[in-house]
Amino acid sequence: MDDSLDSMSETSLELFPGEPVLAEPFVRQVDTGSVTHETPEHFHKSTGRWIDGVILRMRSVLGFHPTTAVNATLSRRLRNLSRRGQDAPSDIALYISYTRPVAAALNRRRAQAVEAYTPTLPPLSGIDVDIVDIVDGLERDGIFVTTLEALGVAHSADMLAAAQHVADDFAPRARALTRNGSMFNIVPSDAIVNRPGIIAWGLQDRLLNIVEAYIGLPAAYDGPHIAYTVADGREVGTRRWHRDREDHRMVKIAIYCNDVDAGGGPFEMIRTAGEDDPAYPYASLSDEELALRYGDRTVWDILSCEGRTGTVIFADTARNYHRGRPAWSKDRKAIFFSYFARRPRHPFCCDRSGLSPAQMANFAMNLPGITPRQRDSIFWRRALPLIARIIPPARM
Ligand SMILES: [Fe+2]
């Protein structure tokens, strides 16, 4: 079942080295629109974007003090402008993709691809009844909850321990970022690439089989990210109801790295609001806004995934509204593995793991025993037409 990874682990690559030295303590802050009050140095180092360098330079020339209201306003406006500019190509592409002729062509191409690939799907029945249950759950509800133990994928304990370790290392920084207004913090990619076993875990055939059986097409692997949610009670960012943009269908595998109860920010999904909606604008919504679209909250079929460490959630986060419920009693650490088709509907909305294509490519090239299927799932961009490849991805 996990021949490929098992063969990898027999080679010289240390997928789970004892205590690897983390890279320089660089922090990637995923800014989803918050107003932060960091020092200029933090801006520049945490984002590395040219606009932050411009802001830093302007402050220096004009003599703004970082804490003045004028300075904060200027920074916010310039950063918003920068954000809009950087997202403009993907926003335009997204809009065009929903125009009638383009949408029809994309739907037709996908239907043909699914029809062509279906006969070659790995057979599930008779091999693994648990996989059939997971795929059925995704079809029926858009979600299936299990545990690492029940899932029976190799190297799970090591992967979980590694994820917990880097999440704990990141905790103080995540709390500081949250105090400064950040809505969503993920462990920096440098820490993840130093733990190749974390990335490799998501490449195992058992998982790719589940993804492909559900989406009906060869799977692309967008890699893992580890989210650290501080218990601040705020309903912001991904803690508002939303659907992910990557593709018609996608699979996220979420694994809790600590026990998560009702106050600990459980993953939640609405099982009845997942109908395909070709005109869907992909906005995030509050309870009230979602009620306008789907009726009163009392009729929503919400599955709140409270669970112990090692709880595994398979979810189609593109088809169904979901969120991380705001945590108020305890921080939540969770790792997410993302998959979609190798020609996703919106390739410019992918790359959500924080790992750059170069980091993923470097991982793949240094992974002994990697199979063609695993390699192709990492290098999914190669299957894209040129026009889709040159549109820069939207910001996270
Ligand atoms: Fe999401």
Task: Looking at this protein, list some descriptive labels.
396 residues; three-stranded antiparallel β-sheet; 10 strands; 13% strand; binds fe (ii) ion
What this model shows, in words?
With 396 residues, the chain is α+β, with helices and mostly antiparallel strands. It has a single domain (3-17, 124-390), classed as Jelly Rolls, CATH 2.60.120. 42% of the residues lie in helices and 13% in strands. It is built from 15 helices and ten strands. The protein has helices at residues 3-9, 40-47, 50-62, 69-97, 100-117, 129-141, 148-151, 156-179, 189-193, 196-201, 205-215, 287-294, 357-365, 372-378, 386-390; strands at residues 29-30, 143-147, 184-186, 219-229, 251-256, 267-270, 302-305, 311-315, 322-324, 332-341. The strands form two sheets. It has a seven-stranded antiparallel β-sheet with strand order 1-3-4-10-5-8-2. It has a three-stranded antiparallel β-sheet with strand order 7-6-9, with no helix packed on it. α2 runs antiparallel to α3 (50-62). The radius of gyration is 21 Å and the shape is globular. The model is unreliable at 1-14 and 17-49 (pLDDT under 50). The structure holds fe (ii) ion. Fe (ii) ion is lined by residues 238, 242, 244, 317, 322.
Mean pLDDT, all residues: 79
Order of strands in the sheet with most strands: 1-3-4-10-5-8-2
CATH architecture: Sandwich
Total domain count? 1
CATH topology: Jelly Rolls
The first-level CATH class name: Mainly Beta
Shape descriptor: globular
* Element-level helix/strand string: HEHHHHHEHHEHHHEEEHEEEEHHH
Rg, please? 21 Å
- Please name the fourth-level CATH homologous superfamily: q2cbj1_9rhob like domain
Bound ligand species: fe (ii) ion
Enumerate the spans where pLDDT stays under 50 for 5 or more consecutive residues.
Answer: 1-14, 17-49
